[in-house]
Design brief:
Layout: E1 3-7, E2 10-13, E3 18-25, E4 33-39, E5 46-52, E6 57-59, E7 67-72, E8 77-82, E9 91-98, E10 112-113, E11 117-122
């Protein structure tokens, strides 16, 4: 059973940066892709970025040029570097994993999820 644990959220002012981490435990995924999603209460979960086991990555237009996804495969940690944060980035951020090598933007294609970490950006 794969377990995902996010950390690094917090409250920051607009324009600042945060780095989220997601530690993977359980069995080792050899063929996989991972993603970050975010959700505001009352709204659908929104895809933010994804990366595969070959380090190919993609991110949403709303965060392009500000957020960067990366991973430390040896440590099994997924990262999301978030720069130039705005109040519109306020959400709970979730890490997700799927046992398929292609990047996906679709929530239902991810099999494993963390419990999330809250990011709050004030103006």
């Amino acid at each position: 059973q794969v377990q995902l644990q996010e950390s690094g959220g917090g409250s920051v002012q607009s324009g600042r940066s945060l780095r989220l981490s997601c530690v993977t435990s359980g069995y080792t995924l050899t063929t996989y892709s991972m993603g970050w999603f975010r959700q505001v209460p009352g709204k659908k979960r929104e895809w933010v970025a994804a990366i595969d086991s070959d380090d190919n990555s993609d991110d949403a237009d709303s965060v392009k040029g500000r957020f960067y996804i990366s991973q430390d495969k040896a440590k099994k940690i997924l990262y999301l570097q978030m720069n130039s944060l705005t109040p519109e980035d306020t959400a709970r951020y979730y890490c997700a994993a799927r046992t398929w090598y292609r990047i996906s933007r679709l929530e239902y294609e991810y099999e494993y999820w963390g419990k999330g970490t809250q990011v709050t950006v004030s103006s």
